[in-house]
Every structure is written in C-alpha cells, then in structure tokens.
Amino acid sequence: MKIKYLFSVVILVSLGTLSSCDLFDSADDISFDVVLPLDFAINETQDNPSGKSYTDSELLDAASDPEVAKYASKIQEFTVNKITYTISGANPNTVTFTNGTLKVASSGKTIASASSVSLANPSETELTSDIAGFNELAASLLNDKQELIQLQGTLSKTPVAFNVKFKFYVTITADAL
Asked: Which residue of 6, 23, 126, 160 could cross-link 95, Cys pair, CB 3.0 to 4.6 Å?
C-alpha cells in the first residue's frame, strides 16, 4: 500500500517538475511596446493632370530602435498592433492619394490600406489593417529585424511633393535573461 502512494507522489513530483520548466522559461519574458517609424518623401515632378500611379519602397528597420537593439538576440515575438500615417509638406495639398497600400515587398502581401487620402489632412490617421499581412510582417521582423516595405497607390494629379510618415505600433516579447 505504501508503494502505491510512493509511486503516486513520484509521478506528481515528476509532472510538476516538467511543467514548471515552462513556467520558469516564461517567467523571465518581458513585453514592451515600440513605435517604428517609416518615412516616404514623395516628389513627382512630371505634369500629369489626370493622375499617376506611384510605387516606392523603404526599409523598416526595427533594430534601429534602442530597445529592440538591446534585446535583438533574445526577441521571441513581434506583434504588429496598428499602423498610422501623417501627411506633411504637401504642395499642392489639393491632390488625393487613392487605393493606397503598404505591402511586404518580398512577397507582395498587403499589410494595410487606405482607399482615399487627402493631402490636406495633417492629422495622424490609422490605416485599415490586414491581419495576415501583420502576421507576415511580424514573422519577417523576427527573422532579421527588418523588412522592405512597398507603398503604392494613385496620385490624382502631378506635379506634387509631400512627406508621409508611417508609424508601426509593435509589441515585442523577449527573454530578459
């Protein structure tokens, strides 16, 4: 009878030891939020009164953020929460940017979009997110902390010049030890 209880105790201790390893692994994990900026300077000089398609790419480099750099080799997960944009320096500001999309350049997967953007609106505005695109971007950032982002859409007329600043709101989970 004593052996039966001893065997039960050994099993419980063994299971407790195995499951507690996962608890200890995650106990030292930290999560923090960062805002990763990405700037596009658009300067279309050709005269196109009926509009023009626009495409350009810029590198989103998460490692340029000091907190990300601090934990770079220990990062376990990136989670993209939202993306916003702000327009500045528009000349003329009567132009509209339509069917705008941000994509992962390597795959062409859409991350976020905006159907119509007035260059006269200088307030920070959230883009419509694509969850599958957010997940693909997060996986790319986890691999090498950077990704080439493509902006494309249609300008209602040119010439036009303006700056658009995107902000990627990201939560990072890393091993603190």
From this structure: 160
| Tens of pLDDT, residues 75-106 | 999 999 999 999 999 999 999 999 999 999 99
**122 with 86: CB under 8 angstroms?**
yes
Q: Environment class of residue 26 by beta-carbon count within 10 Å: exposed (0-12), middle (13-18) or buried (19+)?
A: exposed
**Taken in order 57, 153, 83, 103, is the CA torsion positive or negative?**
negative
CA–CA dist 80, 31 (Å, integer):
13
Report the C-alpha gap between 132 and 13 in whole angstroms.
42
Give the sign of the dihedral formed by CA 115, CA 123, CA 55, CA 65: negative
Please state the pTM of the whole predicted model: 0.84
